TrEMBL record:
It comes from Oceanidesulfovibrio marinus. PANTHER family: REPLICATIVE DNA HELICASE, REPLICATIVE DNA HELICASE DNAB. One of its GO terms (cellular component) is cytosol. Keywords: ATP-binding, DNA replication, DNA-binding, Helicase, Hydrolase, Isomerase, Nucleotide-binding, Primosome. One of its GO terms (biological process) is DNA replication, synthesis of primer. This is DNA 5'-3' helicase. Its EC number is 5.6.2.3.
Length: 446
């Protein structure tokens, strides 16, 4: 059995591994159904290099789907009924595959080889298409860069695919349930107990959207969540496309040192304030916080940099400030299409990295400003609501009010959990959000 190629380089494949997978499944029959399931969950017919092997695996999938044993006789009968028997795929060849193995124990490892070679072939095909696009003068540079970004995201997502059996899933689920039974939240804490209770925290692989009108405290609130996460030992990474890193540090130090942020900005600090600022700066220097303040960030760059952070020091949370500033192609598409693409990419990034992604989103203020934000406000910005596991709103508040405003944070969507509101005090001078105690005062637990 052979396969010709027009390229001078033969695409990556391993015929022996493919034969071992097919033979192992035929040999296993009813006795090794768990190993058969592993291969069926990991592979699709197109992962096999030879067309005849693809036909055989399709037959195996059909037989298994009916609940029948994937043995030699049943698979051969299915191929015959589908008209797929020929000089290369026939009963003697099936018998040869089944008879070439003494055990099915190597089936999972051979399946991984087939899977890896299939992913390599996909990368080659997509890369050749990218080269062709680069030669096409009718395409803009932005369109070519978008093609490249999608290639990176697609490759990362496909490479993360792996079998998820009940033997793997149930223990992790029960560990999570035991934590909840002990009163622990299943996700990373925000540092605000009421919000944690409502939301369940920031769970791995979740996309959490924090939405508000402009200048309502989205960035400051997200920074408070980051600092609180640091205090819990987490390793966060921030993509700030609006603020420079120095401005983020100003706010972080003001919040931690309890010093007026404008005083830090002007450098007018009393000796006592300077001492607190120095102590906060020294403490912050020792943390694993990562900040990227590039103004032009594509989803592919965000994923690439996050993977680098994850590999070099670990990563527990990604903050994207904010969605509408992600760099996406504008090739004859509506703004809604662009924002939808960005939110889907952030969802894929959360699943690929297996960490929560806190994505800030600016709510459009077309027409009159609403007294309260609702989920339908996000529908004007594409598929944000559908892509998000959770949606948090900073409900509108009057910026000109004096004193320390009391801010409502509403969990408007919580897939698989409860919704509701909590209230926080916002100390604008110190750039600090604090929990509201049961007497309506301010606490320091945030």
């Amino acid at each position: 059995m052979s396969r010709n190629t027009k390229s001078s380089h033969v695409p990556p494949h391993n015929i022996e591994a493919e034969q071992a997978v097919l033979g192992g499944i035929l040999l296993a029959g009813c006795q090794g159904r768990h190993r058969v399931a592993d291969a069926l969950e990991m592979l699709v017919p197109e992962d096999f290099y030879l067309p005849g092997h693809q036909d055989m695996f399709r037959a195996i999938c059909r037989v298994a789907g009916r609940g029948d044993p994937t043995d030699l006789v049943t698979v051969a009968e299915d191929l015959r009924n589908e008209g797929k028997f020929d000089k290369q795929v026939n009963a003697p060849y099936l018998a040869e595959l089944a008879g070439s193995l003494m055990t099915t124990s190597t089936l999972p490892s051979h399946a991984k080889i087939v899977f890896a070679d299939a992913r390599r072939r996909e990368v080659i095909e997509q890369s050749l298409a990218l080269v062709g696009a680069a030669y096409d003068k009718s395409l803009s540079l932005g369109e070519i860069q978008e093609h490249a970004s999608r290639l990176v995201l697609s490759t990362q997502t496909q490479s993360a695919r792996s079998p998820e059996t009940m033997d793997q899933l149930v223990p992790a689920f029960m560990d999570n349930l035991r934590q909840r039974r002990r009163g622990q939240i299943p996700g990373l804490s925000t540092g605000f107990p009421d919000l944690d209770e409502k939301s369940g925290g920031m769970r791995k692989a979740q996309l959490i959207t924090l939405a508000a009108y402009t200048s309502q405290g989205k960035s400051v609130f997200a920074l408070n969540v980051v600092i609180n996460a640091l205090l819990k030992g987490a390793r966060p990474g921030v993509f700030s496309m609006e603020m420079e890193a120095d401005e983020i540090l100003e706010r972080a130090i003001a919040r931690d040192a309890m010093v007026n942020a404008s005083a830090i900005q002007r450098g007018r600090l009393s000796p006592q304030e300077w001492e607190r600022v120095e102590a906060s700066a020294a403490k912050l220097r020792q943390t694993p916080l990562r900040i990227s303040d590039l103004s032009s960030v594509t989803p592919a760059l965000a994923l690439e940099r996050s993977r680098a952070w994850q590999a070099t020091g670990g990563l527990d949370l990604v903050v994207v400030d904010y969605l509408q500033l992600l760099k996406l192609s504008k090739s004859s598409r509506t703004r809604e299409n662009e924002v939808s693409e960005g939110s889907r990419a952030m969802k894929e990034m959360a699943k690929t990295l297996q960490v929560p992604v806190l994505m800030l989103s600016q709510v459009s203020r077309d027409g009159a400003k609403a007294d309260r934000l609702k989920l339908w406000h996000l529908r004007e910005s594409g598929s944000i609501e559908n892509d998000s596991n959770q949606v948090w709103f900073i409900q509108p508040w009057d910026k000109i009010q004096e004193g320390t405003p009391r801010i409502e944070i509403e969990v408007a969507k919580n897939r698989g959990g409860a919704c509701g509101s909590c209230f926080l005090w916002f100390n604008r001078e110190m750039q600090a959000f604090r929990s509201v105690d049961r007497h309506g005062g301010e606490t320091l637990d945030g």
